[in-house]
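Write out this protein's structure.
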Amino acid sequence: MEPAGRILGAALTGLFFLTGIHGGHLRSSRVLKMDQALLTFHNQQTEEVHVSYTSDYCYKCLFQPLVRNNASAVVSTKFTLTLQVTSQLRNSTLCRWSQRYEEGGHYSVWIRPSEPPNNPTCTHHVEKSPRNAYLPLVAAALLLALIVLLFAVAPYIYRRRCTARLVATICCKGPPSSLDHDGTQDGEAETSNSNTKHRRLCSLDAFRGFALTVMVFVNYGGGGYWFFQHAPWNGLTVADFVMPWIVFIMGASVLLAFTSMQRKGVRRVQMLRKLTWRTVVLILLGFCFLNYSPRDGPLSWSWLRVPGVLQRLGFTYFVMSLMQTLWGQKEVPLRAHHWWNPVQDVVLYWPEWLFIILLESIWLCITFLMPVPNCPTGYLGAGGIGDEGLYPNCTGGAAGYIDSWMFGDNMFRYPTCKEMYRTTQPFDPEGVLGTINSVVMGFMGMQAGKIIIFFRRKDVHIMSRFLLWAVILGICAAILSKCTRDGGFIPVNKNLWSLSYVTCMGCFSFLLLGAMYFVMDIKGWWGGQPFIYPGMNSIFVYVGHSLLGFYFPFSWEMHFQESHWEWLFQSLWGTSLWLLISYLLYRKKFFLKI
C-alpha cells in the first residue's frame, strides 16, 4: 500500500476510539459520523464511577479512560468493545460487558444500585435505532452483479456484426506482449492446442490485474469499511491479501520470462544487465516519486521514507531474477525411471531451495534470537498499550529495531497499530526483515511457474499440484498460528510479513491462480475482463493512481460523512476510472515498459 493510502487509513483508524466528551450530556440530535455510536451514562449511585474501555481486537491491551459519572462519549462501531465501570471510592469493578455497537445508534447505560449495595447493575437502553452500515455495500454488490450479468448476456442477445467485433476485441485472444514485465512473454507456456505452439496465459495477467484493482480500491479507502483497510496488527483483512498476490504473480512471471530468454539463447550478461536496470528503475520510482510529503520542503532528506512498496518489489524482483539467471533450467530434462521425476520441478532447482531455506533461517534467527534493548527476545507484538503495557517502545521487536538502526526517522510514521495500540515508535511494514519473506513469497510464485512449464499439456497435473501446494502451505500456516489471531507460535501479521502470513498467503495464491487457470486457460469460459487490462499495464496504473489518485476526478472532498454511501461510491468510481484508462490503453496497444 502506498504512503498516501496508508496515511488516509491511519486517519480513519483514528476514528476507532474517539474518547469521552466530558462536561454533561450530549443532545440526542447529535449527528454521528460513520462507524460511530453515542453512549450516554447515567450514574444513579452516590459514589463517583469511572468508565473505561478496550477493544477486543487489541491484544491484552490496557483499559483506557472513557468518561466519569454522568457523561456521554462517542465510541467506535468497528470492533467489539469491552467496557467496565469502576468505583473510585471502593477501587473495584462494579460491572463489565462486551458489546459491538452499531453505527449511528444512541445508547444509554444506567448504573443503578441494588441489594446488597455492593452489586450494582448496568442496563442498556437504545435511545435511537442504529442504521445499517452494510446497506451501501449490499447495494454496490448487487449493482456490480447486474453489470456483470449484462456483459455476460449481451453477446447472446445482440447478434450483430458490430457486436461480434466488439466481443472479439475485448476477449483475450492473442493479446500483444505485456511490456510491464521485461518486454518478454512472461505468461507464455505451451498448451495442448496443436495450432499454436505458444499462447499467453490469460490467468497470469488477470490475476495481476485483479490484485491491482483491489489495491486501488483499498488505497481509495474501500468505502471506509474496516475490513478493506489493513489489520491493526495481527490478523487478516482484504487489504492484507493484495501485496502478497502481486509478489506471487511477479515470481511466476519472472520464472516464465527468464526461462523464455534462456531458451532463446540470451546471454547471462544480458540478463544481468536487464534485471539490474529494472531493479534500479523500480527502486527510484518508489523512492523519488511515491514518497509522502516532507516536513522541511520538497525532497527533504530528513523526512523521506527509505523503504516502500516499489523498493521492496524491486529488491524482490532482483533476487528472484538473479536466482533464475544463475540456477534456472533452459529445458525440462527428459529422463525416464528416476525416483524424482514426479518432483522434478523441486529437485532440479535444489540450489534455489537451499538459498531460500538459508534466507528463512536468517529471518527466524534474527526475529527470535537477536537481543533488542529493553524488549523481550523474540517479541512480535505491537507494543504501546498492548501486552498489558509492559513493552510500550518495542513495536515489531527485532524488525522494528533493525529498521530504526538502519533508517532512523526515514521510516513510515503512521503504522496501522498507531491508533489502536497507542504506539509512539515509527514502524515500516516494508522494512528489511519483511523483505526477506517477500522473497520467499515470490519464490512460491516461481514454483507456480515451474509447475506450468514442467507439466505443460498436462492440465490435471498442474491443477493437482496447485492444490497440493495450497494444502501444504495452509497446514503450515494453521500450525504456526494455531488457527488463532494472536495465540499462535508465529501470528499471521502483514506488518511483519511473518512466516505464517507468507504461508497463508501462498495457500490463497495457489488456490486463486489455480481457479483462474482452470476457468480461463483450460475451459476458456472467461477472458479475464476487465482485470486483464490493468494486469497488462500494471506499472502505469500503480504509479498513476499513487500520484493522481487523490485529485479530481478520481476523488473529491466528501460532504456526507455520516454513512459509507459517498465514500464507497468514490472508491468504486476512482477504481472504475483506472479500469477504463487501462482498457483504452489496451485498445491503443500502449503498454508501459521499464
